Amino acid sequence: MQPATAPNSPAPGPRGKILSWTIPLSHFLLAAGFLVAFAAVGTKVEAHWPVAVLLLLATAGTLVTLTRQLPAQNVLLAAFVIAFIGSMAHGIGAKSGLPFGPFMFGPEGGLKLFGLLPWGLPLLWVVAVLNSRGVARLILRPWRKIRAYGFWLIGLTALLTMLFDCALEPFAAHAKHYWIWTTAGYSLTPQGAPASNSVGWFVLTLLILAFITPAMINKQLSKRSAPDFHPLAVWLGAVLLFATGAAVHGFWLATATDAIIGIIIVVFAVRGAKW
Questions:
Q1: Is residue 41, in this structure, part of any structural domain at all?
Q2: Is the N or C terminus of the chain more exposed, i.e. has fewer CB atoms within 10 Å?
């Protein structure tokens, strides 16, 4: 006689079997990527490949992990929209100074797409926006049943994306010279970028979310899900990497600012996840 199987425990399908090994593998590779990048940044290694590999692994890990919650086509659509809008805005910004402020891309950014845009910039937008949204979901977890939850999620995601960029600026612009601010006549923030840059990231993220939010809603009814800490790990790991780069180059105000940002966000995210 064959043993009876639980009616509510169906065998995992091909998609579930694939995710069962691709997600742990992506997490392992991402952790290794962070370790190598921290070692390279902390020792002032001139090579840019550790950060480039980390960006690729962070993008892949973010997308693969999201497929646990959403159909793969939704995740890929959202990633494409984020990359496209973010790239277009930076391409326009490099020519006109709008909406971020006057800047120019340096040769350290690597291969240029269409001879203008560093190849990693579209991926940076994907990592920043999607993981900021994941952190926002953790923070707002206690209030996810209220009617205004969607609006709070959009606003907090835009704020977290802006803070991600604030932490990035000293590392990317002053330590690595991926881009250079030509800020004559513009006020600079403690992060070494014009205030218009933060406003630009915030507003542009709101625009991006207006397009991708329908694709990011899980329309399948399910029981209360466990909190997902992967976005927090990627978001916080990136901020700590940026703070490390700022510290080894002597940008102590930026380092302190990054540390404060990271501590505050972790406290609120962990508090929300425990709800």
A1: no
A2: N
Q: What gap in Å lies between CA 101 and CA 96, rounded to an integer?
A: 8
Range 21-26 average pLDDT = 87
> 213-252 burial, b if ≥16 CB within 10 A, otherwise e?
eebbeeeeeeeeeeebebbbbbbbbbbbbbbbbbbebebe
Enter the tokens of residue 24: 């742990």
Name the domain count of the chain.
1
Averaged pLDDT for residues 196-223: 88
| More confident site: 183 or 14 | 183
The CA distance from 114 to 40, in Å, is 29
Report helix, strand or coil for 112.
strand
Q: At residue 43, what is the residue type? A: T
**Residue 44, Ramachandran bin (φ over 0: left; ψ between -120 and 50: alpha; else beta):** left
d(CA 258, CA 251) in angstroms, rounded, equals 11
Quote the mean pLDDT of the chain. Answer: 89
Q: What's the number of CA atoms in the CB half-sphere (13 Å) around residue 50?
A: 20
Provide the residue range defining the domain that includes 188: 67-217+225-273
Instruction: Flag whether 38 is in a domain.
Output: no
Helix (H, G, I), strand (E, B) or coil at 168: helix
Distance CA 37, CA 51 (A): 6
Q: Is 270 helix (H, G, I), strand (E, B) or coil?
A: helix
